[in-house]
Amino acid sequence: MTKMGIGKIPNSLLKRIVLSQLGVGDPDVLVGPGIGEDAAIISHGGGELAFKSDPITGSVEEVGILAVYVNANDIASRGAVPRWFLGCILLPPGSSESDLDRICRQIDSAAKELRIAVVGGHTEVTDGTTRPIVVGSMIGVVKNSRFITTGGSSPGDLVYMTKAAGIEGTVILSSDPRIEKSLGEVFVRKCKSMLPKVNVVSECTLLADQEGVTSMHDVTEGGILGCAWEIAEASSSGIFIDLSCVRVLDETWSLCSELGLDPFRLMGSGAVLFTVRAGSEALVEASLSKAGIQYSRIGVIVGPHEGRLFRDLEGRLFSIPPPGSDELWRARTKG
Q1: Three-state secondary structure along 190-211?
Q2: Which of 59, 119, 137, 272 is the most exposed place for a label (fewest CB within 10 A)?
């Protein structure tokens, strides 16, 4: 039997093993689990709630903040307002009270920033892990019964992204000793200062109110290209991405060059991929510009027969494969 690699499991296994065993059917589940779908939507009490669960397994220094940000991002990318957070904190043997306090302070600070209540969870020390892990769950409220899915796009829709590629991966991997040794302490501090950029709640909130926005997807493991493939998969369509249009920060370029990584496949919370119905782009772009939110038009949704393609920085065309192990895990393995 083939052993699985580190990171999210391949989509083929997700479909065959996980998504085929989902308990009973429930008519109140409006959007359930699926490839690329960021959160479930449940009908309740005359409205709708969004539910999400996501662990932080790759970071130590920012694990509490990222647990709140990443789960809030997935709720917000549904067009919902994140409201309630639960955190399961798993600590390795030898952890101290100060380790726990640091994580809880981070969760508290990030929750207050986003006006989220921490309503429960679990905390333990276990020999089942070698570094702190926080498994977060977030519940949000859908506004005016309007929610957005990853699979809502159609051929002809334009593909956009906010901010830049690889922000989360840059923050996390700047802790790698190789980075401080080669690029210096000042560079590491600059990368760490990017942490607030991981939060995408504000841009998702704005985009959810735009009539021309047809889908949104928070960029996480697999980076920009993995996210693009999942948007196409969720909508049963093709997609074309021009990497020359994808913004990459200087810090991300430098870090990826040092570690031999692809910034377009690097863990990318901090960016949102979204699609816009052709003809609506001027209004959406104007709204983003007015709010001071950076964006780039990077591609287009095409018919399924046209495939899932990207043009690299040298102008060559390649197929976009299903997302595999994130570049962050490859860096850890190489280190």
Answers
A1: HHHCCHHHHCCHHHHHHHHCCC
A2: 119
